[in-house]
């Protein structure tokens, strides 16, 4: 869908549908009021009949109003609040898009610039609007023999005042890059595991390297993984016929002298739990266990499209966790790339095993900051549900930067502590540490485990087990999160 920014009077635009706001109590916004006057009170006459109260989420479609060029006018209810929150604002935009998708027009005009969103300037408000439109336009029907009918709606024009046009255009540019990244992330997540395996992800990286200049791609196979001493990473993939891959993508958009930011993604393309086999119910959703790697792909895609002036290294630890005669067993002890030894008490705590070696590998890039992203623990879903990602780390400034980015992007995270007391839960009588810390504080002890491999730099860990996909029902599928948060963090670092 094409998004265009214009600064013109709405009544002068020839379009299939013009979208305008009506507040609760049939309160006409400035645009609706101007249109009402032009049409000889046609809008207020309809409202007096009680067809629309103006509550949030309501809508009413009017046809062929006099003295304006739009074929239809869509009135959308915006509620009684003078300042909308992010959530109701998104609901208004989603509702309008839903109506538009059911109409025959190929274009529409949104005259909603007058709406005030709490804590948002023109840029922030437009970002939310544009990303909501892009999100609502996403489909995944690659494997359906009956494809969805092509939508008539191809173009949406966003109206704004002349003084804010540059700001609004920048927001649309950023939003479209983020949306493209989210779409890439969602596509990878939604692919079935018989197609999307570590080698497939490696091919995706190579394609990205050919498409965008300034991106170097290196693929490390199982032999190189083993030769580097990545015993924990290797152990996770050794039970599968699909070999593991360490994918390294290096984008040099900044000065040579500038240290890079590093994103590390967990890429378990399917997680059976290994010998510690998961229950069968819902196991199909374990194809989403590469959501961390997918979100790094999406973030990188957004950065490449925006040509951000930063240096960025993306490390994806990709493997398939399967039970077989060659699989790692509970009780196995492995030596990590750092030299620390780990007793594997549960083979279903495999994400931290691939990540710990990837975090050690990140040291060679002498990074400004390292952020790992992983669908790591069910415990994080118990703590925070499906709305908020868990956030841990060893640097308060980095934590605050990520929290702020999440707030700006409406892709929120929440901090969890890494107190020393939790570290003790990882004690093992036979190795330097165990890979699990018992039933209590599972998300935190997983973070504690990773922290032992991230002492050489500023580090943060995002647990996205609850936010990377929507589980079950008609909306089942990858969410594209936390691409908005990560991209916002990098936009802030680049001052873009």
Short descriptors:
aminopeptidase, seven-stranded mixed β-sheet, alpha/beta, Leucine Aminopeptidase, subunit E, domain 1, EC 3.4.11.1, 2 domains, 496 residues, protease
Written overview of the protein:
The chain is an alpha/beta fold. It has two domains: 2-159, 3-Layer(aba) Sandwich (Leucine Aminopeptidase, subunit E, domain 1); 180-494, Zn peptidases (Aminopeptidase). 35% of the residues lie in helices and 20% in strands. It is built from 15 helices and 20 strands. The chain has helices at residues 30-38, 42-48, 86-101, 122-136, 165-190, 198-211, 222-227, 231-237, 291-306, 351-361, 378-384, 396-408, 420-423, 442-451, 483-494, and strands at residues 2-6, 17-23, 27-28, 59-63, 72-77, 107-110, 155-159, 215-220, 245-252, 261-271, 311-321, 333-335, 341-343, 369-374, 389-393, 413-415, 433-434, 459-463, 469-470, 477-478. The protein has an eight-stranded mixed β-sheet, sandwiched between helices. Helix 3 packs across helix 4 (122-136), helix 5 (165-190) packs antiparallel against helix 9 (291-306) and helix 9 runs parallel beside helix 15. The longest helix is centred in the middle third of the chain and has 26 residues, at 165-190. The chain is elongated, with a radius of gyration of 25 Å. It starts with a strand and ends with a helix. It is found in: Cytoplasm. Keywords: Aminopeptidase, Cytoplasm, Hydrolase, Manganese, Metal-binding, Protease.
């Amino acid at each position: 869908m094409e998004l265009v920014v214009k600064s013109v009077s709405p009544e002068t635009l020839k379009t299939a549908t013009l979208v305008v706001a009506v507040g609760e109590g049939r309160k006409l916004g400035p645009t609706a009021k101007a249109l009402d006057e032009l049409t000889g009170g046609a809008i207020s006459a309809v409202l007096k009949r009680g067809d629309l109260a103006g509550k949030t989420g309501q809508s009413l479609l009017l046809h062929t109003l006099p003295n304006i060029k739009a074929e239809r006018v869509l009135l959308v209810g915006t509620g009684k609040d003078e300042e909308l929150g992010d959530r109701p604002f998104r609901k208004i935009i989603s509702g309008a898009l839903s109506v538009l998708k059911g109409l025959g027009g190929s274009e529409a005009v949104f005259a909603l610039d007058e709406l005030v969103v709490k804590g948002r300037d023109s840029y922030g408000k437009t970002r939310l609007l544009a990303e909501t439109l892009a999100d609502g336009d996403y489909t995944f029907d690659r494997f359906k023999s009956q494809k969805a009918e092509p939508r008539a709606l191809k173009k949406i024009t966003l109206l704004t005042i002349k003084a804010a046009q540059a700001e609004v255009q920048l927001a649309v540019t950023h939003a479209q890059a983020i949306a493209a990244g989210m779409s890439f992330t969602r596509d990878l997540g939604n692919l079935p595991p018989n197609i999307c395996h570590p080698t497939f992800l490696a091919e995706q990286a190579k394609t990205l390297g050919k498409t965008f200049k300034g991106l170097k791609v290196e693929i490390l196979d199982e032999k190189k993984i083993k030769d580097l001493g990545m015993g924990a990473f290797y152990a996770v993939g050794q039970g599968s016929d699909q070999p593991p891959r360490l994918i390294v993508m290096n984008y040099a958009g900044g000065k040579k002298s500038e240290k890079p930011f590093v994103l590390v993604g967990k890429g378990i393309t399917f997680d059976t739990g290994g010998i510690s086999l998961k229950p069968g119910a819902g196991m199909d959703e374990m194809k989403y266990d590469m959501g961390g790697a997918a979100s790094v792909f999406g973030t990188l895609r957004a950065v490449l499209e925006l040509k951000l002036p930063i240096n960025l290294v993306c490390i994806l630890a990709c493997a398939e966790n399967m039970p077989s005669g060659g699989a790692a067993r509970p009780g196995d002890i492995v030596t990590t790339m750092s030299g620390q030894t780990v007793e594997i008490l549960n083979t279903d705590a495999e994400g931290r095993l691939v990540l710990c070696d990837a975090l050690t590998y990140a040291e060679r890039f002498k990074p400004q900051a390292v952020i790992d992203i992983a669908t790591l623990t069910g415990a994080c879903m118990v703590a925070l549900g499906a709305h908020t990602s868990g956030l841990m780390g060893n640097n308060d400034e980095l934590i605050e930067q990520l929290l702020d980015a999440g707030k700006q992007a409406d892709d929120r995270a929440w901090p969890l502590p890494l107190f020393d007391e939790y570290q003790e839960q990882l004690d093992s009588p036979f190795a330097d540490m165990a890979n699990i810390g018992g039933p209590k504080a599972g998300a935190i002890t997983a973070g504690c485990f990773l922290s032992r491999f991230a002492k050489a730099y500023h580090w943060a860990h995002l647990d996205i087990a609850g936010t990377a996909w929507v589980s079950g029902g008609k909306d089942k599928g990858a969410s594209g999160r936390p691409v908005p948060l990560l991209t916002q963090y990098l936009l802030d670092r680049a001052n873009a």
